[in-house]
Amino acid sequence: MDQIIVIDMKSISENEVLSAIDSLENRIEDLIKEKDQMYLENQSLKDENSELIEDYKEMKQKNSLAKNKAEMILDRLK
Fold this sequence. Notes:
This protein is an all-alpha fold. It is 82% helix and 0% strand.
């Protein structure tokens, strides 16, 4: 997919130059589309990560409450 274009300007025709420019324009457009897709995916992953962090905090808090309740029950049983 990646191409390196080397051109000897002395032996190239105008049509070849235009063709090379078209090729570069297409590659640039493809890269821009890829960048846009990666940006959207990155945003989605950031959102998912934020949700997971919040879920983790909630679970940690619930775990702490459950642990405290369990300790209180054990203390009463002693």
